Amino acid sequence: MSNNKTVVWLVVVVIVLIAGFIFYMNSTRAPEPPEAVPPAEEPTVSPPAEPPPAPSPQTQGTVHTVTFADNAFSPKELTIKKGDVVTWVNNSNQETRPASAIHPTHGVYPGSGLEKCGTAEEPKTFDACDGVVPGNSWSFQFNEVGEWRYHDHLRSSVSGKITVTE
């Protein structure tokens, strides 16, 4: 039996030595850095787009104001003279985009059309193109006589009419 005891003790010693060696190797190895977690991106808020330049004072007629609030334009209908300017003021808490009828093409007012947004023709088109953020305004000079219906491109059921006389 003494031989069996020696063998058992030898096996126990070998197991303890192997376990100790494994423990030692794991404790001396440099820890791996944790996976880098990208920082949370802060939402970016782009500044409001610059409105097109106002017509020059020599050719500008009277300036009229239409406000946007509570999902409606006020006044809903406005009569002005040829050469007058209408300024849409956004008094709501949401963006608005006044544009010539008919939704979605905006082509009723002469020279206007959705396809002209972002081109050199944009200042001459009856379309705010980029929208008007709360607290800002957009102006357009009417040089064509007639009745010109318009709408909010973002809420096409919200509409109004500008009548231009000589």
User: Would you state the CATH class of one domain?
Assistant: Mainly Beta
* CATH T-level topology of one domain: Immunoglobulin-like
- Beta fraction of the residues? 25-35%
The CATH superfamily label of one domain reads Cupredoxins -  blue copper proteins
* Separation of the first and last Cα atoms: 125 Å
Rg from Cα = 36 Å
The helix count comes to 1
Assign an overall shape.
rod-shaped
**Spans where pLDDT lies below 50 across 5 or more residues:** 54-58
- What's the CATH architecture of one domain? Sandwich
Order of helices and strands: HEEEEEEEE
How would you describe what is shown here?
The chain is of the alpha/beta class and 166 residues long. It has a domain at 63-165: Cupredoxins -  blue copper proteins (Immunoglobulin-like, Sandwich). 16% of the residues lie in helices and 28% in strands. It has 1 helix and 8 strands, in the order αββββββββ. The strands form 2 sheets. Strands 2-1-4-6 form a 4-stranded mixed β-sheet, with no helix packed on it. The chain is rod-shaped and about 125 Å long. 18% of the residues are buried.
